[in-house]
Amino acid sequence: MAYQFPALTSEQKKELSEIAQCIVASGKGILAADESVGTMGSRLQRIKVENTEENRRQFREILFTVDDSISQSIGGVILFHETLYQKDSQGKLFRDILKKKGIVVGIKLDQGGAPLAGTNKETTIQGLDGLSERCAQYKKDGADFGKWRAVLKIDNQCPSHLAIQENANTLARYASICQQNGLVPIVEPEVIADGDHDMEHCQYVTEKVLAAVYKALNDHHVYLEGTLLKPNMVTAGHASTKKYTPEQVAMATVTALYRTVPAAVPGICFLSGGMSEEDATLNLNAINLCPLPKPWKLSFSYGRALQASALAAWGGKATNKKATQEAFMKRALANCQAAKGQYVHTGSSGAASTQSLFTACYTY
Ligand SMILES: O=P(O)(O)OC[C@@]1(O)O[C@H](CO)[C@@H](O)[C@@H]1O
Q: Which is an annotated Pfam family here (predicted)?
């Protein structure tokens, strides 16, 4: 069929693919620091710190003012709206601090779930109304990529055909709007780990979801070279009694991706989904060593698995700045090595790094 109505100019495509490649350049991944106020509240509650704007700002200032060498491991940071406009204690905007380090700034664009009536408590994600205007403003304010997380669960009759189609289409519509405004869309269809299903079942569902997402992206004329995928790894449900090695997780994950994700996609940055920091790193390392064709960069976009030790080290005290930055740097480096298949587990990880970070029905 003739391509009569091109969605993007060649200049727009060039810009988008350059941004995407820069984020996942060798060994680099993403710090997902885009927790909403509510989600950050539950993180802070764990360390007995009050969820105030100032406390959220202080923790993020510590992360973002870490040594410049962080840019060898972190190619992009996803921010929440509030954080995009926050400043450090010297009055410098966080986004300028990150950009000065050569880190690309991203913004969370989804606005929470809404029930899909007639399903077993499944959801779609809101935020398409006014999205183009928000994207245009964020681009002016220094963001170069966006993120939208859709949630699919494995349960009785789930995910339903409706939930898969609706979320795939919404992700594709979001991705198209992002690209029109110069933002690289991170497409995140998360099959959450709640449940007692085995890994094979998770693989089956993940393949169905990803196949629907890439069909929808194609229908919406999304330029794949200017996108990044943020999927779950293929694992057993959190309540499953079956245990799998990182090599088994890697084989199931890469098989699912190889069957469904086009080679034009420059990078796949996994979410950590409640895995411990160490498991998230070991699995990513095994994924990069998996003996299957891997035409994309396979990296990380971790929230919990990059910040849990740092949060524990901070404990709300400014005097713990150095220890907090060291803990963050350690995980960032470990994941940088894992993104190249070069991580060697030394056995010296702190308690926080092996602790499960799973929260049931994790939403926002
Ligand atoms: O699973 P993780 O790695 O902790 O976080 C993944 C993530 O998509 O989920 C959170 C909720 O939207 C976001 O803060 C984050 O970007």
A: Glycolytic
